[in-house]
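hi! just following up on the protien thing from before. the input was this:
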Amino acid sequence: MKRSLLFLLLLAVLSPVIRAAVPASPPFRVMSFNVRYGSAKDGDNSWDKRQDLFFETIMRYKPDLIGFQEVIALQRDAIEERMPAYAFSGVARDDGERKGEWSLIGYRKDRFTPVVAGDFWLSDQPSTPGSKGWDAALPRICSWIRLREIATGREFVFANTHFDHRGAVARKEAGRVINERLAPVASGVPAILTGDLNITEDNPAYLALLKPLAKDAIRWIDSYRTLYPKREPNEASFNAFKGTVQGSRIDYIFHSSHFKATAATIDRSSRDGRFPSDHYPVTAVLVLTK
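and the predicted 3d structure came back as:
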């Protein structure tokens, strides 16, 4: 009994020292970027004419983590070739391989190492590649990866998705599927979710992510809205290659309560009146607090 008591007292004394020995994580620089699929007939805004600006925009921000949406195979290959400092995770949504669009995940190889990764479809058959849910116009996917920070050994989950552009039911159900599928893989660790959700904050699907009904679901926090609590009329994140600013966000970076957002932007960078995509990339700086 005396030995047990002595051990507990010693542990109580040493615990702060042990915790202090684990270095603090540097801030996580996160980007979400809908790339506009490369086969679109966009004339002067076609992929081959804007990809240099696209990569310059990413490298200017130097994200640790990036969630791409609407990536097709030719863009997937270009991203891997031109971003050698990053590793990538995810599959294409039509066949679970290379057909259709990716919700592609990128992460810095010098900072993180993969633990486990997966993909699921936003449908009532989430394990079936190419499955289309409810009133969705197209198959939709969420890709995720559990990463370990090399310097600290801390693990977290990073997920990326793209909701349907037509199906109101599909968008709301997509939030439920994400909550059900990510809760187990992110159990006990921090989590980040990026995506083009094709909804504004007025949509019930947005509230379903922030205030889910399931008790064990992640209660996502909107990084941008935390820092800018008052909604403004010039928060558009979709620009249609026109430089639009009036409107609401449809692109988001969410995080679990383990993080605190210290910065967030809608990056409206352009060059000579041209934009890297028909969406603005959105960014956030997240600090681990617990």
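The first helix runs from residue 2 to 21.
Helices lie at 2-21, 47-61, 73-82, 168-185, 204-210, 223-227.
cheers
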